[in-house]
Amino acid sequence: MSDDFNMSMRKFLKQVGVTSQQAIEEAVRDAGGPEGRTYEARAVITVDGLDVEHVVTGTIKG
């Protein structure tokens, strides 16, 4: 893969990580805080023009 492709993909994934963390933190604050709570999380990434659907699941513990 080209350097431009790799840099573009890394920039996209960084944006996904940062904006997702901000959205989750805001939702947890709105719900009253994370103390003692566990959240099951799922992220789905699709790419137009490619036959890909990447799913990541995990647990977020407060």
Q: Would you give an account of this structure?
A:
This protein is α+β, with helices and mostly antiparallel strands. It has one domain. The chain is 45% helix and 29% strand. The protein has 1 helix and 2 strands. Strands 1-2 form a two-stranded antiparallel sheet. A hairpin with a 6-residue loop joins strand 1 and strand 2. The chain is elongated. The model has no long low-confidence stretch (mean pLDDT 95). InterPro entries: DUF6494 (IPR045471). It holds the Pfam family DUF6494.
Short précis:
By secondary structure, the chain is α+β, with helices and mostly antiparallel strands.
Distance between the termini: 39 Å
Count up the helices.
Answer: 1
**Could you say which overall geometry the principal axes of the C-alpha atoms support?**
elongated
Strand arrangement in the largest pleated sheet: 1-2
- Provide the structure class: alpha+beta
Strand percent estimate: 25-35%
Order of helices and strands: HEE
What is the helix content? 40-55%
How is the main sheet built? 2 strands, antiparallel
Radius of gyration: 15 Å
Give the overall pLDDT as a whole number. Answer: 95
* Secondary structure: number of strands: 2
Blueprint (SSEs and pairs):
Elements: H1 3-30, E1 38-46, E2 53-61
Antiparallel strand pairs: 1-2
What key attributes describe this structure?
single chain, 62 residues, alpha+beta
